[in-house]
Structures are given as structure tokens and as C-alpha cells.
């Protein structure tokens, strides 16, 4: 159970502690932040509202810890990460329980998130040992005008202190996808978890504590992003920010100083369906892509662009599958569970009402109870409706009927987002041409968009992000290249 057994020390009465300098602590603010259970809409947990002083202290110890961590052998760093991964998986049940209560993630998916996170940490440790164990050796005579008098040795060095800010929808997985690459590369890490998801993240951090990482190397500051966020992101002690979330990321990137940024932001992933597509496959992927975790995924299918000639048939197939989705609490693994907050539900409802006023066809009756919104397919959506462009982050999916492939590509590219997209056709040549024309970081051919497997590169274009994630890319992003040049008095050519 959450907050008991090995996790008892992270709880003080009914308030979870924050993690600083290798210890679980109460904030001197005396203030707490309530975490509302999206299903019951009552306070489920409380976390500390950390102060600026506490952030300063965390940054100080992170800086000190990093200096000796950078001198810790790579195999030892990997060994500790493997240990943390095993502990995380061993304690998947209490962590998954928090995910169910804090973010209404269906119970089975919550377990999957924790197990996947353990696997990600282990894979990162292995990948780090390989790619950080290699550098480059360059010789000067390949550039015109030079003799072979200079040997250049390059290696990857850590950046320093990495600030990690994940979003509510994968508070464990999207935290470890930043923690593990940062640590294997020799950085220290400060985590600011999302408020909804903070307690799951604190349990996860405790697994790193139990693994025995040095004091100060990992810390976890809790508090509302709107209150503590700017102080963290503008802190002079931060050498890199890895952020996943919504438009907040755009504001952070505009304010951040001369530090590397990894930004994974929103998406409006388009699903382009051609006349020759296997419509059963498309319908299954629209259901999985559009409605799993109630549409609260960055890579959810967020607009279907289907050729008019097959639109009726596709809509009927999707409607039949929507009718089979179970709706209710996450504890019993319903397909559709309450969205994360009341404000989120209100936002989704606003998009639905706008579509109604402007004449979209409702394939189901719109129904909402508290934060629970029943799955809804909106047909005949037109570009003047907000839902054609905005990210609902809920179980509501618009269908736009198109008369040409160009029209579909145009709609996809007119979006300010460019995360992923997908195309369904049996003609691989057409699929490749469409994939090349879509201005998104990834295009899936004949499958719904997806972030995993976690070692694949993952990136958004335009307002969807800066840089690229995926295990290898994240390790590289959290390092810099350093070179040492050996200058010889006379040219020297290595002989066989
Ligand atoms: P969000 O509101 O942007 O919050 C993300 C994180 O930022 C949270 O930890 C939040 O903390 C924190 N935060 C809020 N204000 C801040 C500030 N001023 N400075 C620093 N941090 C601040 O996003 P969300 O609602 O959690 O997640 C949904 C969004 O994430 C969607 O747009 C989705 O598409 C996107 N997303 C993208 C990806 C991707 O990889 N591209 C993956 C998943 C989700 P609090 O919770 O305390 O406010």
C-alpha cells in the first residue's frame, strides 16, 4: 500500500515529504498542496509546498554531488541504475495504486507504466555504458592546409544539474525518461513532479533512494508549478531543462537562459485515411489511439482526416467500437475514466459545445458526470470549429471528411503542432510520400501514433517541441562534447 512498508518514511502524518540531500523532509513553509482524486473529486493526498530557500538548498547539494558523481566509474553508475530499476519493479503495486488515485489511470495501465519505467532505466544504463564509453579520435591532415600534427580526442561530458519537469499523464515514466539519462551521463537531477502525480513520483524517487545513490544527486521538490515553477526554471544553478507538458513549455523556453532545453509539448496528431485503407485496422487504431487513457496522451489520435468515399463506412465501424468501451472508475480498469481535473473537463466541454453550435454531427449523445466524460466521436467537423485545431486531452475525437490527399496534408501542416501523425493505406509508395510531406516529428504508417518503444527517437516539430527524446538521444542531449588536442612538433603518420 502507498505510504507504508518501505515507503513509510516518505510520509509525515497525512502529508508526503519532499526529498533533499538524501533525506525525506518537511517543508518549513508549513503549507501543503492537495492532490484531488479525479474520480471522487476529494482530496486524496497532500504534498509539501516547498519554499525558494529549499530550492536553493537542493540546487547547492545537487551541484556538489554532481562533481563527485562525474568521477564515478560508468559501470558503477550503471550498476546503481539497474538496482533502482529492480526496486521500482518490485514495488510496482503501491506506485500503480497512486497512479490510479491521483490521475485516474486504469489499474492495469498503471502497472504497465511502472514496469515500463523500470525497463527504461535498465535500458538507459546499458545504452549509456556503450555510448559514453566511446569518443572520437580525429587527425588534422584531413582538412586542407594541415599536416598530421594535431590529434584531437573527443569525449562526452555531463552538463551539471538537470531540472526535470514531467506532466501529469505519465508522472513516473516521463520522470525516469529524464532521470536515467541524466544520471548515467554523470549529471545530478532535480525533479519537480506534476502536482497530480506527485505522490507516484515521490514513491518512484524513494526507489532511487533505496538503491543507494549518493546524497544530493537526486532531489524532488514539490509544489504548484504556477508558484514554484519560475523560480526553478530561472534558477542559476540549473544547467539543462528537460520539460514535458503543454504550452507552459513555450513560456519556459522563451525565458530560459543559455542552457540546453529538451521540450516535449502538445500535439494534434492527425490520422489520414486513404480510400484503399483496411478500415477494420483503422477503426481499431482510432479506438486505441484516440481513446486509451481517455485521450490524455500527447500522441493520441486527435483528428481523423478521412477520404469522403470511405468516411461513412469508417465512422460506422468506429461508432460500433465506441459503443463497447467501458466507462467508469480506474480501479476496475474501465476504458474511459475521469479526466484529470474539473478544469480539464470544463475545457473539453467548451470544445464540444463549440462544435455543437457550429453544426458537427454527434455520433453519440454528449454525457458528463463530474470529471467523467463519455467517449464521443464528432463527425463532419469543419476547420472553423475549435476542435479541428485544439488539443482536447479527453475522450472526444473529431472527424474531418476530405476530398484529396493534399487536403489532408494541408490540414495536418496548418496546425501549430507537429508531434506525430499517421497514415493508413495499402500503397506503401503513397504512404512514404505522405509521410515525407507531413510536418511532424514522426509518422506512423498503418498504426496509431505512439511514443514507444522508449529507445526510438521521439520529437515534435513547431510548437510540439525542441530537441529529441528517446533513450540514446536523451543521453546525448544531456552531455556536451569536450575535446583535447595533442599538438606535435613535427607531422607524424601512423604506419602499418
Ligand atoms: P502542463 O500543465 O504544461 O504541466 C506540465 C508540468 O509543468 C507540470 O509538472 C506542472 O506542474 C509544471 N508547471 C506548471 N507551471 C509551471 C511553470 N510556470 N514553470 C515550470 N513548470 C510548471 O501539462 P499537463 O497538463 O501536466 O500535461 C498535458 C500536456 O502535456 C498536453 O499538452 C500534452 O500533449 C503534453 N504532453 C506532451 C508529451 C510529449 O512528449 N510531447 C507527453 C505527455 C504530455 P503542476 O502540475 O504543479 O502545475
UniProtKB/TrEMBL annotation:
Q: Pfam families annotated for this entry?
A: Aldedh
Where do the Aldehyde dehydrogenase domain residues begin and end?
24-483
Where does this polypeptide localize? Cytoplasm
Q: Which reaction does it catalyse?
A: D-glyceraldehyde 3-phosphate + NADP(+) + H2O = (2R)-3-phosphoglycerate + NADPH + 2 H(+)
Keyword Cytoplasm in annotation: yes
Family annotation (SUPFAM superfamilies) = ALDH-like (SSF53720)
Which PANTHER family does this one have?
Answer: ALDEHYDE DEHYDROGENASE
Family assignment from sequence similarity: Belongs to the aldehyde dehydrogenase family.
Q: What is this protein called?
A: NADP-dependent glyceraldehyde-3-phosphate dehydrogenase
Amino acid at each position: 500500500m502507498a505510504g507504508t512498508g518501505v515507503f513509510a518514511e516518505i510520509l509525515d502524518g497525512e502529508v508526503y515529504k519532499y526529498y533533499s540531500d538524501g533525506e525525506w523532509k518537511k517543508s518549513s513553509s508549513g503549507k501543503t498542496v492537495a492532490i484531488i482524486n479525479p474520480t471522487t473529486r476529494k482530496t486524496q493526498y497532500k504534498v509539501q509546498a516547498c519554499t525558494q530557500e529549499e530550492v536553493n538548498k537542493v540546487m547547492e547539494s545537487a551541484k556538489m554531488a554532481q562533481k563527485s558523481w562525474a568521477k564515478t566509474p560508468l559501470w558503477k553508475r550503471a550498476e546503481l541504475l539497474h538496482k533502482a530499476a529492480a526496486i521500482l519493479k518490485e514495488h510496482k503495486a503501491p506506485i500503480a495504486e497512486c497512479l490510479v488515485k491521483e490521475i485516474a489511470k486504469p489499474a492495469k495501465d498503471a502497472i504497465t507504466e511502472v514496469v515500463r519505467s523500470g525497463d527504461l532505466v535498465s535500458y538507459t544504463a546499458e545504452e549509456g555504458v556503450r555510448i559514453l564509453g566511446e569518443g572520437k579520435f580525429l587527425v588534422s591532415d584531413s582538412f586542407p592546409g594541415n599536416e598530421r600534427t594535431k590529434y584531437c580526442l573527443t569525449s562526452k561530458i555531463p552538463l551539471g544539474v538537470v531540472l526535470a519537469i514531467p506532466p501529469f499523464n505519465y508522472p513516473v515514466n516521463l520522470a525516469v525518461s529524464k532521470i536515467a539519462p541524466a544520471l548515467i551521463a554523470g549529471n545530478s537531477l532535480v525533479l519537480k513532479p506534476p502536482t497530480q502525480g506527485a505522490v507516484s513520483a515521490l514513491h518512484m524517487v524513494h526507489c532511487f533512494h533505496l538503491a543507494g545513490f549518493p546524497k544530493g544527486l537526486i532531489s524532488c521538490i514539490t509544489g504548484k508549478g504556477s508558484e514554484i515553477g519560475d523560480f526553478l526554471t530561472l534558477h542559476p544553478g540549473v544547467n539543462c531543462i528537460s520539460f514535458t507538458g503543454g504550452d507552459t513549455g513555450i513560456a519556459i523556453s522563451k525565458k530560459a537562459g543559455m542552457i540546453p532545453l529538451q521540450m516535449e509539448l502538445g500535439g494534434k496528431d492527425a490520422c489520414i485515411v486513404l480510400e484503399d485503407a483496411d478500415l477494420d485496422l483503422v477503426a481499431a487504431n482510432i479506438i486505441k489511439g484516440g481513446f486509451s487513457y481517455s485521450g490524455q496522451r500527447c500522441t493520441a489520435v486527435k483528428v481523423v482526416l478521412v477520404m469522403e468515399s470511405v468516411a461513412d463506412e469508417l465512422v460506422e465501424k468506429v461508432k460500433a467500437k465506441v459503443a463497447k468501451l467501458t466507462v467508469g472508475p480506474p480501479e476496475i480498469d474501465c476504458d474511459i475514466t475521469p479526466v484529470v481535473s474539473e478544469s480539464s473537463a470544463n475545457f473539453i466541454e467548451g470544445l464540444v459545445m463549440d462544435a455543437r453550435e457550429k453544426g458537427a454531427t454527434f455520433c453519440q449523445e454528449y454525457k458528463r458526470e463530474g470529471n467523467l466524460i463519455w467517449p464521443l466521436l464528432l463527425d463532419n467537423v469543419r476547420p472553423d470549429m475549435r476542435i479541428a485545431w485544439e488539443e482536447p486531452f479527453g475522450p472526444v475525437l473529431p472527424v474531418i471528411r476530405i476530398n484529396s490527399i493534399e487536403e489532408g496534408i494541408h490540414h495536418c501542416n496548418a496546425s501549430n503542432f507537429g508531434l506525430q501523425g499517421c497514415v493508413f493505406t495499402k500503397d506503401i509508395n503513397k504512404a512514404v510520400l505522405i509521410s515525407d510531406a507531413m510536418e511532424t516529428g514522426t509518422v506512423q504508417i498503418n498504426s496509431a501514433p505512439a511514443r514507444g518503444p522508449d529507445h526510438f527517437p521521439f520529437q515534435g516539430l513547431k510548437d510540439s517541441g525542441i530537441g529529441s527524446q528517446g533513450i540514446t538521444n536523451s543521453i546525448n542531449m544531456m552531455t556536451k562534447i569536450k575535446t583535447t588536442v595533442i599538438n606535435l612538433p613535427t607531422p607524424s603518420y601512423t604506419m602499418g
